[in-house]
Request: fold
Amino acid sequence: MSERSVGIIYKHHFEPAKEEALKLERWLRERGAMVFSEEMSARAAMNACFEEPSFIPREVEFVVVLGGDGTLLGAARRVARYGVPILGVNLGGLGFLTEIPLKKLYSAVELMLDGRMEVETRLMLEAMVLRGGAETCRFLVLNDVVINKGALARIIDLDVFINDQFLTTFRADGLIVSTPTGSTAYNLSAGGPILYPTMSSFILTPICPFTLTNRPILLPDSHVVSITQSKGGGEGKPDF
Reply:
């Protein structure tokens, strides 16, 4: 694209976010930018396996996300594959990832337009679910992937392979595969370590492990992890 172009994604069914998105869109157009806006649907925000095509083209310079951390995580699944920066603006309850307050929105966007905003590269995970040898789901995540049984507090046995080499069997309520960005979320609550956000590593953290020797494991991002439910523990092979 020859002219400046910006994407805007705003929180679903949240009128203040929609109003701010319209204001920002007008402000950008007054400065000669082409703007592509879309609302984050409730289904896309909650269901990682639901692939809804984004209206925002790959050629945008950056994407502004108006909402809370959940909106930013959903937006990352939709547009992170473009390789463009994402600017998170907090309009929700939790603003751990969406660090920019609304009052600093326009000054931050001006910095982005001028190329004066420092951009951090964050690791993402690509997860693939296999059932009966067939792929049923594939998605990207910025924070974590959690494997557990449908019923809460039910022990599950998970065989873990690293690059096709058997590592161990986790016997626990579940297993968290976390990025450095997600290390301060569920991973931290489950006793996992905090990683510096730009590290090139991820963590395997068992949830309430049955065995004392089952502890969190830190792995480099070049490794492929396969997680299979042990025999007698049910069918299905999630592959990450």
In short: The CA atoms of residues 41 and 231 lie 38 Å apart. The two ends are 35 Å apart (CA to CA). The chain has two domains: 5-114, 125-239.
